Amino acid sequence: MAHHNTVFAQLLKMVPRHRFDGLAERHHVGRRFRKTSRWSQFVALAMGQLSGRHSLRDVVANADAQRSRWYHLGALRVTRSTLARVNEQQPCSFYEALFGTLYQRCRTHRPGHGFRFKNALYSLDSSLIDLSLKLFPWGHFALSKAAIKLHLGLDHRGHLPAFATLTEPRRSDIEVARSLSLPRGSIVVFDKGYDDYSWYTTLTNQGVFFIGRQKRDARYKVVERRKVDKSQGLICDQTIELTGIKSRREALAPLRRVVYRDADTGRRYVFLSNHFGLSASTIAACYRQRWQIELFFKWIKQNLKIKAFLGTSRNAVMTQIWIALCMYLMLAYLKYASKLHASLQTMIRLLQLNLFARRNLMALLRGDPTVPDPPNPQAHLAFT
């Protein structure tokens, strides 16, 4: 019977250690570690993510229970006080950089976005991650509430988080969006929270296409009308010039206005875009795909540990969220590189139950039947 390392050890091999160690050295602050390392921290917190641990004590106890296998992971034994100190003092920017490295690895194996055009398609949105005001007073933002805000750009080629930022909850979406550098020729989709005429001008000058929502009080004049297929839910397709004071001040170029009515809900949507090459139905379909980013937020909140936190400092909370996003990218890389048909939710459930089992990782995720161990000759007694 072939020997296999633990499932967890096989999964961790997907993290490029030379790159990991280089980033760890670059983002280290203070004295050098004597009894731990950033790799030991990552292994402990990644195990906590995949095995559903609820507290720092729970993570350390689970690691101690697997002490015989911990050495083969290349990690040092962690104690609760040491792990808490590293989570609080070592900058979470290290895991933000690791997140970028893992996304670059996923790019080579991701599938397409399902549309005929070759442009990259992104969706922008943000989500509040609720915190306890008593335990996290630094996250206070309204009455008796506390939170931290996750701003995310979803790459629809594989539904991967392409870029993310963690901010205080009062930080506006458009303020974060202005700091992004999107690839030239890409298409970005967003809701009314990103409606800003100066940003529209910036995107157009950068060669980036956008699909957004028109404000109800927007003033405009119609320059051109195009025929639409009303059987597809389209109401109109127009070229417009915005005539409001702000739009005139920004010298905004003519935009495309597409009005669409959803057949299921009866809701009416008014889209604005600077892309005149796509059909009106494709623009509506691109915006409909924006719902995938809502599903992404829902998935990570339900399947990864970003509700119960292992530390109370801002850095510890952000470290845990960044590691959760890194684990998502590792699972996505495993799925796309190996062409697995299992969903990410199925994968994480299998890993949770078999994290330290000595099985072939791919056979586990494919659902291959287990091969029984060969019979032990010493277990058979010969009676004479």
Would you kindly provide a written description of the structure presented here, covering whatever features stand out?
With 384 residues, this protein is α+β, with helices and mostly antiparallel strands. Among the domains are: 7-95 and 309-366, no CATH class; 191-289, no CATH class. Helices cover 40% and strands 18% of the residues. It has 15 helices and 10 strands. It has helices at 7-12, 17-26, 38-51, 56-65, 67-70, 80-89, 93-107, 173-178, 197-205, 245-250, 280-288, 291-303, 314-337, 344-354, 361-366; strands at residues 121-131, 140-142, 145-155, 160-167, 187-189, 209-213, 220-226, 234-242, 255-261, 268-273. Strands 1, 2, 3, 4, 5, 6, 7, 8, 9 and 10 form a 10-stranded mixed sheet that branches. Helix 9 links the parallel strand 5 and strand 6 (209-213). Helix 3 (38-51) packs across helix 4 (56-65), helix 3 packs across helix 13 and helix 7 (93-107) packs parallel to helix 13 (314-337).
